[in-house]
Here is the input.
Amino acid sequence: KILITGAGGQLGTELTAALAQKYGNENVIATDINEKAAEKYTFCSFEVLDVLDVDRFSKLVEEYDVSTVYHLAAILSAVGEKNPLFTWKLNMDSLLNVLEMAKNGKIEKIYWPSSIAVFGKNTPMDNTPQECVMDPTTVYGISKLAGERWCAYYFEKYGVDVRSLRYPGLIGYKSVGGGGTTDYAVDIYRAAINKEDFDCFLKEDTYLPMMYMPDAIKATLQLMDAPKEDVSVRSSYNISALSFSPKEIYASLLKHYPDFKIAYTPDFRQDIASTWPDSIDDTKARLDWNWQPDYNLDEMTEDILKHLT
Ligand code: VAH
Here is the structure.
């Protein structure tokens, strides 16, 4: 059985549905700290879970006979800056708890998302390599980088089968962003469709690596399906699909909504975005488990508009 934490979040909403479809509704347990997330889970089991509650977490794992945990619960980059110490505690303690459960033989396999937020000011910005200088500036980024090292440590020392991707900004239409620096690219579609003007919190020329949610789901399932011996990276894989600026996503929407208007009012999130790469080199993922994205920017826009209108 598969247990997902943070199942009410932007990624959790879509990944849980995909896992239920692939492995059967009866084999999936969605959990979230927010009981309102239960509304999304009429098709599978749902449990309220605070990932810092170690006792309840291991009880659920036992009760449901869980073998795989997708540990998605985390505080993201922008909101994390409002409460740095708690962000560190939540992101780190919860991961270590899951890794310990695997080390102690309670679960067999872990998926844990990392992020391009592990990179920083001294990281090469274009085609950022798998291995390079990593000097994150946000607590979220620091926790993801430390988390990556813990994952590699538990794999090397204890043979824990933990797998991870450094997601770029994820864009989907089925769920809303959770307080990240890349959320503008999710919100801009709703504004265009609702015929509202859009105020962007990043400058027009801020390039960031991004990915359409179906590609993120595909990559995650592919990595988790890969034979153990093919997974050569046990910290976290660089993974790439798109790279665009607010100006370019706006241009992509203008083709469908010629009257759509945008203004740029950069705030503290601009400072975060400025330290992240423009584009990512994901050669390792392509070589190890045949990663290849399906959507470019215009295809993503067309698909989102088709579903939302
Ligand atoms: C954030 N969307 O902005 C997340 C992500 C690519 C960064 O991890 O915090």
